[in-house]
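Quick illustration for those who missed Monday's session on complexes.
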Amino acid sequence: MDPVIQAAMDARGNAHAPYSKYRVGAAVETENGTIIEGCNVESSSFGLTICAERVALGAAITKGHQSFKSIVVASKDGASPCGACRQVIWDLCGNIPITLIDEEGNQESMLIGDLLPKPFDNRNLSKVTDLHRDPPAH
Ligand SMILES: [Zn+2]
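Prediction with zinc ion bound:
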């Protein structure tokens, strides 16, 4: 089995999902072939829950990785990343392949750009240089 897929499936086993019981694992492959995993970590105040994709990418960034080749998300039914994760994957990884896998091993692959058409990103921010001017005098 592809080691990135295996890593995502293994990470799913570590998910902290006592409230939803919806366990998710993710694994990101860095440009140099390192594989870094994440799992969802739920909080009793649900809004603080962190998705597996963002845990994996945060861990990768923490270890100094800045370039990514692919990401895999493993869940019960091969769910797609939430909107927040799509944005963060796009921001940190660009238009990389993403594979979704369910617990029976069924896979579906696409590009992040297919999941996040017309993304907001640093190209938009570069257009708002006016924000960096001094405030108007009173
Ligand atoms: Zn998410």
